[in-house]
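Final report, closing paragraph on structural work. Over the funding period we assembled a curated collection of sequence-structure pairs, and we close with a single example.
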Amino acid sequence: MFLLATIIVLSYLIGSIPTSIIVSKASRGIDIRKHGSGNAGGTNVMRVLGWKHGVFVILLDAFKGVLAVVVVARLHYGSMPFQNITPFDDFTLVQIIAGISAVIGHVWTIFAGFKGGKGIATALGMLLMIITVDMLIAIGVFIIVVSISRYVSLGSLIGTISVPFSLVVRENIFNVDIPGYNTILPFIIAVSLLIIYTHRKNVIRILNGSENKLSFKKKQLS
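Its predicted structure, as stored:
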């Protein structure tokens, strides 16, 4: 149990690294939370500092999820401290636990008053290691929606919803044998609901027409 607890804590701390705050302070000497939407995420960095800084932060945030799943999870050895009743092997289950911990750390970071980003990029990095095909489909959906609407939040939401939809379609219509489908699907639905929850204010702004659209030009800061 101690080893698993260590993995959870380390993954949470990795997810908690406030990359957007670090990058904005290092590059422009500002606190990104005091500009744009006030959110400590890559999208807000893109709005305020330009697309290069924004993409850099998003990649760093995604890497946090990858690091938790690929590196931290490997600290586990031996049997699980509880009975593993899932169809996954013990290591895959530990990867899922580590990934969720990293996402929680990103959303509620201990290094910034438990107010972080929305978890999209970190969840993306985590899930790319577990359900690669479905996440690549989600990335494609995200790019298409953002290209048409210029709403990053809308692209994130529809991309998120497309993941469980893709799983259901591939398993039940195209008869693809997805390992651990009956367990991974409710897990993905839970992660999707968390991401939708963190975007609740964006949904309201989209509905009333006040949501900011994506611009590839950085704003002039006073």
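The chain has ten helices and no strands. The mean pLDDT is 91. We thank the funder for supporting this effort.
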